[in-house]
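Trying the structure run again after the queue cleared.
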Amino acid sequence: MSQRVLKFVVMRQCGKWAKIGVVCLAALFTGCGPQADLALKFSPGDRTKYKIVTEDIKDFKFEQPSLGKARSEPRSTTAQIKFVQEIESVGENGDCVAEITIRGLKYLAKDKDGVKFDFDSDREGDRKKPLAKLLGNSYKIKLASDGGVQVLDAKKIRRTVSGGQDGRVAKALLSDEGIRKRHEILFLPDSEKNLLYKGDSWSRIEATEQRLMVPKTFEKTYTLKDVKGQVGSQKAVVEMTATETATPPGTVSRISGGIGLFANMFDTEEDYNGEMVLDLDTGKVVEYYEKFVTKYIAAEPSARQKPDKGPDLLTIILTYSTTMEMLD
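Done. Tokens:
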């Protein structure tokens, strides 16, 4: 074989292996990494302890720089519940019936004048208060593998506390909506689309809290951000971001305190994000959080505004957050 022919053959082989290398690298970066089964898994008799904390914060600030005045009216409600989730049965489709037993409860409500309601089941003095009767009591829910929740039976625990402020707090915590929001996992894809690779995304359209000044709808995008650990002990990290999208016609909002009538006066800023860690071996949520912050800002020149001072400024900040973590 002449040197010229040999050189041509060598170049062809080098080109062939180079192409194979490019194909392999392309495959590596487009879905040949670890695949994650993003679904909840249930086993009859399994018991898991969780702590969930929800916060509802409203902060109203009115500043008058020319007069050297400022007024703030903060309000906040924080609820923390520790519970045991015991799986009673599992259906053929992977859904389960679970009994939820309350093991700990804290509830704190404050406004500009101070604390309005404070209960902590860890305090010895609070164990004789009406809300303490919820400890050790249970309700039943149906959990779907994609995180959906249906309330099955909460009649008994709802009869435990009634009347007064304690009764109102218990009613809110144990309403169908309160229970559903506490246990649903919104970070999971539809059950038929739960096998994903790192970097894969899916989205949902969702209306925000009705307590906002104006109705808003967001497109929430979930991304499988990472798969950590070795096979048999892997954890998936799912990240959520959200952007405002068009609100469906005819949407009705409960306007908070009538302020919503003047909503067009405000500039708005929103930050809506979250993250979940799912144990892929056990199919249990290790932890997650979701936080929504919206800020309304209105600046209005004052008749008494001084040249070196800014306009009167009204700022309203609303914060809603939920955090859940598995306990040892």
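The longest strand covers residues 69-90. Worth checking whether this holds up in the mutant runs.
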